[in-house]
Amino acid sequence: HDFNNMLQAIIGYSEILLYSRKEGEPGVRELNTIIKTGEEGAELVRKLLAFGQESPGSPEDFDLNHQIMDSFKIISSTLSPLIETEFDFCSQPVFVHADTNQVDQILVNLAINSSEAMPDGGRIRVKTRNVSFDADYCKVNPGARTGEYVMLSFADTGRGMARDFLERIFDPFFSTKQRGAVRGTGLGLSVVRGLVQKHGGHIVCESEPGKGTEFRIFFPAIETPKCINRMNVPAMKPLKTDTILVVEDNSSVAELVKIALVSAGYQVIVSRDGQEALNIYKTRSKEISLVVLDLLMPKMSGKDCLMAMRRICPSVSVLIVTGYSPSEEFQAEIQPFVKGFLRKPFNMAQLVNHVRSILNDEGSIMA
To answer: Which of 68, 94, 115, 300 holds its CA 20 to 30 A away from the CA of 130?
Structure first.
């Protein structure tokens, strides 16, 4: 949470400086480098959470090829130097709607499984393809549904498995390793299958002793998503002058959010803790169109502040903006009462577009 707040200030204030400069002017290249490095730091935090399996679920549209390469920047450093990695990607981007943290968990578990099957070295080959399931395929593959999919193949040249093992590999607590082995919990592949099914996907495994193992995961394919350009913050003013209450205890981040929203044409009230925000909302709820609310704050938590505001006005519109990674249970608990989640560090275009979408009543926004 604290580190993401620091990255938020670094990225955000660099963007503000960048907006005041034209391409080719002194400082533009350096500011772009600062922003890029800050975003890489944020990505590293997200991946470390995925390694620790502490990441919340928040699906989004992304190119699976890019996500795999990004994940292997860390995964490769954990593998034995005797293990080679090859990539064979579909020539075009392959877009899926999934949680990137949980896709990372899938890749990590498969990499661990493969590396343990190749103690003397070998090769991991990762491949993606666009495929279709027809009725005939689904008849012989329980759990599969007809439609368009993105296939992720994860193959190794390890020792492989006998058929009786292969039929049980996805069972919870089943392991081919001896009891008491350091990593022999038998949960890795069970978790992988659970995450794949959670995304509406399908997983199969083929293996033969002495010939290696291949896992094929199928994610439902989606159309190419519309991307928001980080540098193109919409310049148009709101149809009406909305007032937004920003509740953020970090002074640098609070000022940054205020600058971004004022520049987009909104009136902004800033509160530095939940209790102060609640006091403001009690007297000014009729003029406040949206509350931008952090989760971790002194005096009163974001959740308690949210619930107290709902007692004042059950239809209060709230956008959660946080550097904290809440559990899926916590997120599901408050999700019915909020219009969206935006994770720090974010860029100014993301913030403004989230706010505009909510105020234009375009449904819940998650990022």
So the answer is: 115
HEC letters along the chain: CHHHHHHHHHHHHHHHHHHCCCCCCCCHHHHHHHHHHHHHHHHHHHHHHHHCCCCCCCCEEEEHHHHHHHHHHHHHHHCCCCEEEEEECCCCCCEEEECHHHHHHHHHHHHHHHHHCCCCCEEEEEEEEEEEECHHHHHHCCCCCCEEEEEEEEEECCCCCCHHHHCCCCCCCCCCCCCCCCCCCCCHHHHHHHHHHHCCCEEEEEEECCCEEEEEEEEEECCCCCCCCCCCCCCCCCCCCCEEEEECCCHHHHHHHHHHHHHCCCEEEEECCHHHHHHHHHHHCCCEEEEEECCCCCCCCHHHHHHHHHHHCCCCCEEEEECCCCCHHHHHHHHHHCCEEEECCCCHHHHHHHHHHHHCCCCCEEC
Kindly report, residue by residue over 336-362, the tens digit of the pLDDT. Answer: 899 988 888 888 888 998 999 899 875
Distance CA 367, CA 361 (A): 17
